[in-house]
Description:
The structure is a homodimer of 341-residue chains. Chain A has 341 residues and is of the alpha/beta class. The first copy, chain A, contains twelve helices and twelve strands.
Amino acid sequence: MRNKTTSFDIAYQAGVSQSTVSRALSGNPLVSKETRARIQAIAKELNYKVDKNASNLRTQTSNTIALLLFEDVTVDDSNINPFFLSMLGSITKACAEAKYDLLVSFQQMNDDWYAEYEDCHKADGLILLGYGDYLTYAQKLAHLIDQKTHFVLWGAGDKSLDAITIRCDNKQGGFAITQHLIEQGRRHIAFIGEASDATPELLERYQGYCQALKDNGLTPNKKLHVDAKITELSGYEATKELLARNEKVDAIFTACDLMAIGAMRAIKDKQLVVGKDIAVVGYDDISVAQFTNPPLTTVRQDTNIAGQLLVKNLIDLIKGNDVSNSIIEPRLMIRQSCGKA
Amino acid sequence: MRNKTTSFDIAYQAGVSQSTVSRALSGNPLVSKETRARIQAIAKELNYKVDKNASNLRTQTSNTIALLLFEDVTVDDSNINPFFLSMLGSITKACAEAKYDLLVSFQQMNDDWYAEYEDCHKADGLILLGYGDYLTYAQKLAHLIDQKTHFVLWGAGDKSLDAITIRCDNKQGGFAITQHLIEQGRRHIAFIGEASDATPELLERYQGYCQALKDNGLTPNKKLHVDAKITELSGYEATKELLARNEKVDAIFTACDLMAIGAMRAIKDKQLVVGKDIAVVGYDDISVAQFTNPPLTTVRQDTNIAGQLLVKNLIDLIKGNDVSNSIIEPRLMIRQSCGKA
DNA sequence: CTGAAAGCGCTTACAG
DNA sequence: CTGAAAGCGCTTACAG
């Protein structure tokens, strides 16, 4: 539609060659000061911007990072986990600071996802957030590695996988919050959430939980463990099932905050008091956690730091710098849902 | 690094010309069935993807939408308003469904923002979310229009501006929630939030508030109006100031939920009971609202619908279809903070 | 310090 | 139905 301004137009007006315009605008030091100034002035006046498709095609880069967000397909059509949304915000900021564009995409677990981006030359690298079944996921990752795609991973990640991971020390987090419950005098602590190889992050939290129990002379009780998906509703249903088992329960560690909110609702439905009859603790520290009733004791995974690290490490990877995995310290956020005043 | 597969490689293997490969893969109906099938098989085997930089350069399109998110620069470095985050989630989904890529960007209010995207041929159109001072913003918009940039706007937008806007009926929302407070027996209803031409959305909510008061024989009282920024902290401070004025206050309508959370905190600090001594209502229905203590009565702006409309209208605009403004119905979410049990 | 020219990988008239 | 060729708008060796 509109007549596009190109570097040739600028060159014509400035009375120089198009090559010189390109050099002047890209900051090539060979160009003389006056020439550069003149060209910049004209470019500004004509509202000229370098065509990224052309320059990217030429240089075979994109200055773009793609964020691939996987939500478990079993999850309903509702909202994205606020934890990821918060991460998304932090990643957006970090990309802006690093002068990279951010392409955001939701993915289902189809066969093609790993190829969609870098191979399209739309992104120089990938940030991967979330996954359905980790076992399936790991295979896709292996494929990405085969293709020498640049990517970094949040959360999961395994020793056998040669991929850069930024993760929370989930075992430590699970240990610390369970230890805290025990110190509050709780002895019959349930765990809600899937703890299997398909969900390594939750599994690690579970392992931390078991460790804390054992260190305190307590034995993990299978009957106090109920699987659940990463949703409020699933946490609610799992807790209902738990409470129907007629086992003694005085605390529940839910593997994430979303489930914890559901757990609290299930407890209230039973006319029990959260924090008194049953302590509830979660994981993530989503923004809602401080406003639940009672406010939720949980483990914070700092999304600001995580986002910055994901972006920084990915850019280092793209640039060929040395990069290593990063571990984020979990941080206990003691509020009232665990019985502490 | 890796040897990139191009359409010439496919052509060579298939024993056809590169043109035919391009046609086959782009769905051009001229290509014969067998040829197409053969080419597709080879492309899949070689994991070939069309280079978007090249095809976009050639066709002068991008199949990409850019989301520009403006946060008021006066806002601290904290988190993005969850309302926008939720919108971002919904827009991401809608773009994925429409097969558009989404480029996300945070913007400060610098001179160049309007030119950054479409002119770079990285995006076919823009979605604009948030703004600092609307008056400054409107000038930039005028410039965008001059440049015939395709864009849609959330929230604000004025009759004089020839831009497609998707917005909530803020006046109606402000009216309805104020009316509700009055029906609950509240008579001394304060308004917290800036209500000026610089913040048209909030101004409309304020106008709805005034209208409801007048319709019920009440007079808006200047002393019950305190300006505030769109943050929890600012809502907290504005409410402290309000309560220090020693005017009778039995309800507060804060112009957004973030402020409402701050307002509730300020009320509690004064040893007053939210929902009893002072009713509090907000606007937006961010996900936190249902978990505050007490749960916050507010006006929902449906971000799912909003995101879908923004994307749909923008795509129509890009395609040259007729597009008109959309108005989203505000929806009262009655919870306990307004005194209703 | 500057210019002429090649080429990044596609799409699409044009010719057959 | 298919191929040869031009060209999208840049960047960057190469030559001066």
